[in-house]
Give the backbone structure.
Amino acid sequence: MAHRNTGYHEGDDTRGSPEMWRVVLFGAAAGGVYYLARRTRQSRRQRPADSAPQYVRQHRSGGYAVTGRTVTIARPRNEVYAFWRDFTNLPAFMENVRSVDVTGDLTRWVIAGPAGSEVTLETRIVEDRENDHISWRSTSGSDIDTQGSVSFRDAPGGRGTEVEAQIAYVPPGGAVGRWIAKAFQKEPAMQGRRELKRLKMLMETGEIATSSNRRPNA
Amino acid sequence: MRALTWHGKHDVRIETVPDPEIVNPRDAIIEVTATAICGSDLHLYDAVIPGMQRGDILGHEFMGRVVDTGAKSTLKKGQRVVVPFTISCGKCFFCDKQLFSACDNSNPVEKQDVTEALYGHSVSGLFGYSHLTGGYPGGQAEYVRVPFSNVGPIVIPDGFEDEQVLFLSDILPTGWMAAENAEIEPGDTVAVWGCGPVGLFAIQSALLMGAARVIAIDEYPGRLALARKLGADTIDFKQTPVLEALMEMSGGFGPDAVIDAVGMESHGFAPDTVMDNIKQTVGVGADSGHALREALMAVRKGGRVSIPGVYGGFLDKFPLGALMEKGLQIKSGQTHVQRYLKDLLDRIREGELDTTFMISHRLPLEEAAEGYHNFRYNQNDWTKVVLKP
Ligand SMILES: NC(=O)c1ccc[n+]([C@@H]2O[C@H](COP(=O)([O-])OP(=O)(O)OC[C@H]3O[C@@H](n4cnc5c(N)ncnc54)[C@H](O)[C@@H]3O)[C@@H](O)[C@H]2O)c1
Ligand SMILES: [Zn+2]
Ligand SMILES: [Zn+2]
């Protein structure tokens, strides 16, 4: 059910000038990030806290890798909350989630792994405040140690709902673990960013944009 | 189907590719009856816009007949439509503000990463353009899949020839928005750099909006003659220094508003252009901006700067001081095409706008590569090429 746009393969990007652009851009960005990270590490300790979410300046917390992202969706808060709260909706916009199975407080996730393999994850809802906040945590039987939360706020000026999602996880050992670590660390915020944007598309327009000219073979 | 595909710098080919099909609920499939080559296509032809891939189908100015519709399309089979080059969802914050080329939901998410890194934000999807704007297959083809077909396409009533309305897809609204962005007041002198199709429509629009005088700048006598026919005065930058001429022709004021309808591939051998071209050729993402620099220098204090010309990266030696110290105002953007369609169709019906005068060549789609070559290298005679699949 979570199939989508396969017409354009990421690998195709690595040809000709687009690749050059990526290299130039990401090279410059990486250099900048390294420089800034060093500077901030040196000076953060003496600084009073500001108003930005913590995950913007800190990507690790007590052994967990942390990533977060906020998106504004032009739909009422109760509608966005209700859509997310029904976890079986999540594979519709989460690329790697193959299936979701809900029994009471427990949710079993099957996630696409490397080379056609699958990773399973079991989470328990830790907190659920209607139209406001959901948080979850993996159970001991899971392949991944992870916790996450999503908050829903009214956006200013009647713009809809601000959805802020955060995920923290400890990658497990072994080959699968290394793969997961790599997948997450390569572009820490990218996956989350893409998923929230797909959610936004789905909620605002009822479809997820694709430039593919052909339906994926189901 | 047959379609024009991109294979690298100055290499476009007509090939047989799979027909498009309905993918999403709001899609429609259009059988193309007319399509045109745009100055923006030349930036792709010259490979100065990043994010192109081999085999991409080009073309963003097209119209045709609806042959298939998704469950939520509002179009009906058989309707004749012109399709805006900007793809817009009609539901997001930006579409709501009629900023259609800023649509949040039409650029596929996996295409947005690079655009965000390059521009800070991703922008709307565009047909037949770079993967930075979605990599959507374009309209220089027999068939096109049109997403969000309930928002973009305008249904054309009987009584219009294809060629009268085809340019609603891009260059007519682009010229119009360029003039609108110049915020013309009665008595204004407006200078327009570039007498390509966009510049010519900007000239026509500026005069309609009440400019007292329009001064058009280009090097090609053929294109300058078209500008004169519309009622503009002209400067041939190959024989006359533009800045000095503009100052003298506006009584020492400088034009009240300036329009850069040239974009990132400014011609000529001014020192800044030569430097720009070297950087562009070695691919460091530098745009050539002679026309824009000149426009910023020429415009009067407190004047308005309108930039329909396309830029894709970074510009060196941008006269930021002139902008600040003279208190200028700049407006730019890919055109919010959907915003203007109804009004402009009415103006075509009323005969207020001449939309066909610039068409110099009509070719079958099969000869599109020849059209590109000539539109690029014989600009004096080849002002606008219409292709028929
Ligand atoms: N904003 C938009 O949505 C939008 C839409 C369509 C086209 N465009 C852009 O508008 C620009 C013009 O498009 P077009 O189809 O008219 O292209 P074109 O290539 O046919 O015309 C450009 C003209 O500019 C002239 N020129 C070049 N250097 C000049 C200089 N230094 N001074 C004065 N004139 C100069 C050329 O001789 C040519 O006649 C392009 O950059 C195109 O990408 C923007
Ligand atoms: Zn165009
Ligand atoms: Zn939109």
Notes: Chain B touches chain A through 47 residues (CB under 8 Å). The longest strand of chain B covers residues 28-37.
